[in-house]
Amino acid sequence: MSSSTGDHLSVNDNIIINLPPQTPIIFSSGSNNDEIRKKRMISNRESARRSRMRKQKHLEDVKNQVTKYKMVNQQLMNRLRLVNHNGHIVEQQNKMLRFESAMLRERLCHLQRLLARPEFQCTLLSSAWPCNNIVTL
């Protein structure tokens, strides 16, 4: 028949088709076309099977990541609960220590006022503490 100068030729009932990235496939009339069609169908089925397998693998990987992230999240939540619990305990202890500190300050002020009275100063200086009653000869 006729021929053309391009990549797609029609010569003697044979058709050449370039399919990137594979090598050109030659289609001819008759039983050869059926054979090529079957090969292409098998190739397409195999390609689809590989694609489904890649998709399944990706899905499994994503599910594994989700499971891992859920476990890490649960661990972090447990740690947060523990830190919050310990924080509440420390707050209660601080509250009790502040109260105790205020009571002790009040008591110290009261004792200092008592000691500042003149009637207690003479007694304290002479006999309140045995070490103050040293007799020299």
From TrEMBL:
PROSITE patterns per record: BZIP, BZIP_BASIC
Keyword Ribonucleoprotein found: no
First-listed, main subcellular location of the protein, grouped into a coarse class: nucleus
GO CC terms, sorted: nucleus
InterPro entries in the record: bZIP (IPR004827), bZIP_plant_GBF1 (IPR045314), bZIP_sf (IPR046347)
Cell compartment(s), UniProt: Nucleus
Swiss-Prot/TrEMBL keywords: DNA-binding, Nucleus, Transcription, Transcription regulation
SUPFAM superfamilies, sorted: Leucine zipper domain (SSF57959)
Any one Gene Ontology molecular-function term assigned to this protein's record: protein heterodimerization activity
Protein name: BZIP domain-containing protein
